[in-house]
Amino acid sequence: MTQPNTALKGIDPSKAAGIPCLVVDDQTVLATLALSHLLQLVPDPTQFEDKRAQHALFTNPALSDLAEKRQEVQRYFTGAKKSNLPKYASFIFERVEARTHRGTPPICLGTSSKLTVVEGPEGTAKVAIPFGRYFLAVDGETQRAAWTLVSHRVYEMVQAGLAEEEILENVRIPVEIHHGLSVEALQALFYERNVLGAKVNVNEAISKDQRDPATRIVRTIMAMAITQPNGQRVPISSVVMQQSRQVGKKAPEWITLSALRTLVVTTMFGRSGLQYGAKPVPPLVNVDEEAVSTELAHIVHAILQTFADKFADKERYLIGAPSIMAGIGVAAHQAVTSMPRSSEQGPLTLDQLLASLSEVRWDKEGGFWEGIGTRKTPKGATTVAGPKEVGYAVSDALEGTNRTTAAQVRGLPTPQQELPGSQQVLSPTLN
Q1: Which residue numbers in the chain have pLDDT < 50?
Q2: Residue extents of the structural domains in the chain
Q3: Omega into 86 within 30° of 0, i.e. cis?
Q4: Which of 230, 293, 341, 379 maximizes the CB count within 10 A of its CB?
Q5: Residue 248's pLDDT is what?
Q6: Do residues 35 and 171 lie in contact, with contact meaning Cβ atoms separated by under 8 Å?
Q7: Backbone dihedral region of 351: left (phi > 0), alpha (psi from -120 to 50 degrees) or beta?
Q8: Which residues contact 55 (CB under 8 A, 6 or more apart)?
Q9: What phi and psi values does residue 31 have, to the nearest 5 degrees?
């Protein structure tokens, strides 16, 4: 005789969907939802901020109530949250399209309604999700909004005959469901998730990623040996700060892991590499990845070794700053032969590249980098700006595409300062 499924008792299938779950406590369960179900349960949060759509949305009392609660619990899509949305969507889309999606962090869902949870044998349970009920994304709202963009892109591919509908049907989203909580409790949950947690710094995150081709090349480089200014032979890993975002003036390390990766990325892709920052770079296609890795490791090692004394003297020189290393990589891209070059400059041999870089004044002081890569604080201290802010200006100066700044960082008279008939010219590699 077949035993009844006790987990279904208490759930009316005509009124609610019974979702398998794990019970955490009286007000929390863990579950996975089909993507289509998630999109129905949690309306796209960006629509609540679209003034054109608000009137139509708010004719639905349930949506209007959800919008009011969201305004009290969540933050708007502005600043970094807004700019991160399309990037996150592209990241998810690429994995879904390639069928390599292995899940995303659980989205934290909340509702003031108390849900029915029916426990079965051996720890099984089901939570009843009433049809037509809406949930608030207390944490993971950017991911929820990104899934809307992903579903639209995939649907366009399906319509064009470039993908199968099942590509999204097989996607499941992990969720935490917190139910029976007041708005104040949901606000506290938002606070706990976004304030009390310690964010992993970029260096630590990069060091854990084994898939990214740039990071794999960085690991190859760090295993190579380098001679320090004192003559001691050490692995490059010993002069790379891997646990902190900055290198202290008295620290034995020369550069951060993220700065080294930036150098690798811009050497690999040239100027287009400036856009990546700490984000994963695309897979290397139609090239010999082993040959690329060998060549880039050789180029980067040569740069680190040639200017070891300046990398080591962080108090006097700025060569190890991320924005400067980004520009060095753009210049070094001219010497890359193992993959297509995106630079209109060059090509250069490695010796020509090193000779060109040797002409540069890497001093923090002296005004060589003022207005290009450095700024003065109100107290007169020199600070180096970040790659996104000055990466292109630094690249122009090092490549020589801007003759004025190229002369400035080399301590040469700028074109405006040259006297009539002056024979002073820049390095032939920069003309």
Answers
A1: 1-8, 418-431
A2: 14-197, 203-430
A3: no
A4: 293
A5: 80
A6: yes
A7: alpha
A8: none
A9: -155, 175
